[in-house]
Design a protein that fits this description.
By secondary structure, the chain is an alpha+beta fold. It has 6 helices and 8 strands; from the N terminus they run ββαααβββαβαββα. A hairpin with a 2-residue loop joins strand 7 and strand 8. This is Ribosomal-protein-alanine N-acetyltransferase.
Length: about 210
Amino acid sequence: MAFSARQWPVNVDGGDIVLRPIRRGDKHEWMHLRRVNASWLAPWEPSQPVPDGTAPTYGEMVSGLNRQARSGHCLPWLITRRDPLLSRVPIVGQLTVSGISYGAARSASLGYWVDSSCAGHGIVPTAVALATDHCFGTLGLHRMEINIRPENAASLRVVQKLGFRDEGLRERYLHINGAWADHRTFALTSEEVPEGLLARWRGGSGGR
């Protein structure tokens, strides 16, 4: 099965955690969340290696991500969390599946960030499991990859909880927070989770 524009936009509903497409109307809530989490996210933020490179505006970012999604190259989701005490479903983070490849590879990479007040509550592992199951089950991909800085203990716990394999160090792999940074690569293939990653995670056997 190959990805088509007809499959975007798409929501992935995990009960209390829902992945939904990022929209222009999310600007104020998204920017507020980023602002209050600026110091929490700064050490892990992608940056421009070109000296005069400028970051896109919010509108440019959303347009670019959705254009890539419609062409089948990425899945730009917001992580939202249902709260029985609220009439709306607030944004708590962002998760993007990028570099979607078919042919002989059938693979993709996944990245995310989350509000610091929500860290450690199982939100990110659940979101990663939802996205991975969608890619394996709906899109027919075979491999999901996550690249993490060795110093990022919180993200390392996410892949450990979910049972992603450590495939080693990539030196100076991505430009992060103003410098080229090493990353450890973690991966999972569809054969390793025949019952689905979310089922394994919620069943308590995600970690190794």
